[in-house]
């Protein structure tokens, strides 16, 4: 079976769905584009459920699918001192992937421009004036989609060479407590009352959906992931010794686990004429924090605008050159041990207004604002890392 389209979108994660949603609702007077979204069927090729968090004002495109949102964030150093800040007019938003997928499916189903097909993509082959996406359905039926433009959001088999690559890896429990123990008004963004690894840093992360329900995560920035038993042990320690919950006080209703590369690698965005990469595989993940969703929105919005106006749709780099350089220096400083991670992040949240800091993390601050924020970091250590960065060779990390 062969289909012809203007656009083929490979993968139905955050990037693929976001682009398909924008193409399903073109602005008035825009070019109409026949689009095929290829989503993996249930099974080993479909991404596991996950939770995306980001910050923006009220009235976002996906607010109806949110699990919760907050206007206050809290960071705790090892001594437990609370550093709490309001972030209005921003809100910190929690979007579960299954809710986002359901929202996208409803909106796409109402569009005559986008068709969603469940199939596993086997290959993307460049051809004159476009590319052919070859795939197969769950029943083995072969499918080919010929399109002028192809946008591939699948994760790469290997990460590009980098000077520094750390892994943000985590496991979380969805917890329901018998007593009202959670503060539903405030996110525990970084709670450093966790045993710190010999290399990197760790923290607790708590997203309270009510006084009785929360997502509780143990997170590390380090070079290697842990085994399942190590994550479980860390979570038991955090919920028990730090949060003060006895095993009989709560039940675990679900879990999630993931690994996010934090790297100064340069991700290619153009793999062949008419074939592009989008999302995390095109550099949407902020190297120093692991946040991805907001950058995906900026990137897919720019791609959709180019397609709707007939311009060349090369996905823009989601983060500015200045942001990428600052992140490369910070990653190098963390990896080399020149700075103490918990102290560094606590100092920033203590001394920099929270809204300005969030805008900085989103790459939306000016050079003078960046310099003002830089006055609150350990200057000597950061300068040493910056001077050592050009001497550090880029190496290919292990397979992802």
UniProtKB/TrEMBL annotation:
It comes from Streptomyces albus. Pfam families: Lycopene_cycl. InterPro entries: FAD/NAD-bd_sf. This is Lycopene cyclase.
């Amino acid at each position: 079976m062969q289909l012809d389209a203007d656009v083929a979108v490979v993968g139905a994660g955050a990037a693929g769905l976001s682009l398909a949603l924008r193409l399903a609702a073109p602005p008035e007077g825009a070019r109409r584009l026949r689009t095929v979204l290829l989503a993996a069927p249930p099974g080993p090729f479909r991404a596991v459920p996950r939770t995306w968090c980001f910050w923006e004002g009220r009235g976002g495109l996906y607010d109806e699918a949110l699990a919760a949102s907050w206007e206050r964030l809290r960071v705790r150093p090892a001594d437990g001192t609370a550093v709490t800040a309001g972030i209005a007019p921003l809100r910190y938003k929690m979007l579960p992937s299954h809710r986002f997928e359901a929202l996208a499916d409803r909106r796409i189903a109402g569009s005559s421009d986008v068709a969603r097909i469940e199939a596993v993509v086997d290959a993307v082959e460049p051809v004159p004036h476009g590319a052919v996406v070859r795939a197969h359905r769950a029943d083995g039926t072969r499918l080919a989609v010929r399109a002028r433009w192809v946008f591939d959001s699948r994760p790469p088999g290997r990460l590009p060479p980098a000077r520094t690559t750390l892994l943000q890896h985590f496991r979380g429990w969805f917890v329901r407590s018998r007593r009202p123990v959670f503060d539903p008004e405030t996110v525990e963004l970084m709670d450093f009352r966790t045993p710190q690894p010999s290399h990197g840093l760790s923290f607790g992360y708590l997203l309270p959906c009510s006084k009785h329900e929360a997502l509780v995560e143990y997170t590390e920035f380090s070079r290697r992931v842990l085994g399942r038993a190590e994550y479980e042990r860390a979570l038991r320690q955090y919920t028990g010794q730090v949060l003060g919950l006895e095993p009989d006080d709560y039940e675990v209703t679900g879990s999630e686990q993931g690994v996010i590369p934090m790297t100064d690698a340069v991700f290619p965005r153009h793999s062949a004429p008419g074939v592009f990469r989008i999302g995390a595989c095109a550099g949407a993940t902020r190297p120093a924090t692991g946040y991805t969703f907001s950058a995906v929105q900026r990137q897919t919005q720019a791609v959709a605008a180019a397609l709707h106006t007939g311009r060349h749709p090369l996905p823009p780099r989601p983060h500015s050159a200045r942001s990428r350089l600052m992140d490369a220096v910070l990653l190098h400083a963390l990896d080399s041990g020149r700075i103490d991670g918990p102290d560094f992040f606590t100092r920033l949240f203590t001394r920099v207004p929270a809204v300005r800091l969030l805008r900085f993390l989103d790459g939306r601050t000016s050079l003078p604002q960046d310099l003002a924020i830089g006055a609150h970091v350990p200057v000597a250590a950061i300068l040493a890392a910056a001077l050592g960065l050009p001497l550090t060779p880029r190496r290919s990390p292990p397979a992802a």
